[in-house]
Amino acid sequence: MAIFLSEADIKSLVTIEDAIDAVSEVFKISGAGEVINPPRQQIDIPGGGYLRLTSAIVSPLGKIAVKVSSSMVFASESGRTLILVDSKTGRVDAIIEVFHLGALRTAAASGVGTKLLAREDADSIGIFGTGRQAKTQLAAVAAVRPIKNILAIGRDQGRLDIFCKEMTDKLGIPVSAAKSPEELYACSVLVTATTSADPVLFGEHLKPGTHINAMGANRLERRELDDAALEACSVITVDNKVQAQKESAVLLRAVENGSRSWEDVLELGDIMADPAKGRASSDAITVYNSHGVAMEDVALAKKAFELARDQGIGLEVPFTID
Prior knowledge:
Layout: E1 2-5, H1 7-13, H2 16-31, E2 35-36, E3 41-44, E4 50-58, E5 63-71, E6 80-86, E7 92-97, H3 99-117, E8 124-128, H4 132-144, E9 149-153, H5 157-171, E10 175-177, E11 189-192, E12 211-214, H6 227-232, E13 235-238, H7 241-247, H8 249-257, E14 265-267, H9 268-273, E15 286-289, H10 294-311, E16 315-317
Parallel strand pairs: 1-7, 8-9, 8-11, 9-10, 11-12, 12-15, 13-14, 13-15
Antiparallel strand pairs: 1-16, 2-4, 3-4, 4-5, 5-6, 6-7
Helix pairs in contact: 2-3, 2-10, 3-4, 3-10
């Protein structure tokens, strides 16, 4: 008997700490070479929008996941569904609405990247963007570092003010509106959570010791970091290099102009397997360029399924077996 988990179920079940633990485990498994995670397929929808298909097999977790997501022509929270399958029996464990789960898993990966790469004494965050993903990004970084204050910048002042108040109340940490983007560069951890086609973070302003989580530019038409920002980084990481080779405009530009090669790019799983590949000094500038991949969905869906099963949450869905 499978269960159906709604958006409301996920919000009541899974904390950001749960998400970070689950995603950390799957990066460790990935670093050991035990994950099958093909790049996602994207199909354009006539009239606008796209359909995305992602899947992964994580045998040590005993789970397979297939996710179907859509955008643009549908309502913002529709068309995002994951099927979690037992890898030994082939039975469907759960059908999950994953709009909120997707934000959690993306943030959790940034939490892992921050835990692996940011200075231990990192105590401030500067964030570009005030959307849904920005909220979970702040929660994830604050869960792994002793954050004392946060500065935010956004295009709409009214929305920025609301964001700052909401996140101050939620995190119990002062979140203030920056007067200019340049103010953010004094922070220990910088987060870009935008859909910008042009860079919002510039290398000329970066301070020694900064860690960057760049998570908004997961399509070729988006680029949050300028070339100088990437050149300043001594450690460059992604969640999945094959996916980055298809979607990371900033990395593809760097490889094309010869300032970087793909051999310079590590997966977070590589650092889980060999921590010596991470931050080498307190002055090093590091970056995690996020794309969001299906193995993270597997880990978090498994966590949600187990929590739901233990707490008796979810709608039972019968499947007929021949």
